[in-house]
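Aim 2 progress update. The chain analyzed this quarter is reproduced below.
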Amino acid sequence: MKIVSAEFVKSAFEEEHWPRDAMPEVAFLGRSNVGKSSLINSLLGVRGLARTSSTPGRTQSLNFFLINNRFRFVDLPGYGYARVPRIIKDSWGEMATNYLAKRPQLVLSIQIVDSRHEPTTLDVQLNEWLAAHAKPRVVVATKSDKLSNNELRKSLERVKRALAAERVIVYSATTGKGREQVWRAIEEAMA
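Predicted structure tokens:
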């Protein structure tokens, strides 16, 4: 896909602040520090649009980005490890669940896992929730450039087994590996 425009629209902490039009949306979900923002920036070919941080848990709201004036990317807060008070961490889960459950504009959920690590219990729970609610989804394994081919092959087998995923897209924000496959999944979901 040719990206002609990509802009940050808004951060929303509550449902009443979500955009109100019927534009299709693609959600990016994953643990804190799994590379969601790097994946978004890499897909768009833009540096710094989605904020990246070495500190897990920086994304604390739903962040909406308008792409080509045709659809939106939505960066959801990371789950799992983050140095924030428990009450804030709990509200993130509620905010994300409400969005995933209620949003008719949502055409695809991109569940991101770190290819270097075994999927966590939270990764499995998210995947099961998406499946149980019949939400269109694709699994993307980021940071693939940090593994040898043999390590990556073993990692993909673990991810497929843990998440009962037929297909896992291998991705590297550094090299761009997997970019075309992710765009293909997005275009198919919007068709």
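The helical segments are 36-44, 86-102, 121-132, 149-163, 179-190. The beta strands are 6-12, 25-30, 62-67, 71-75, 106-114, 137-142, 168-170. These observations will guide the mutagenesis experiments scheduled for the next reporting period.
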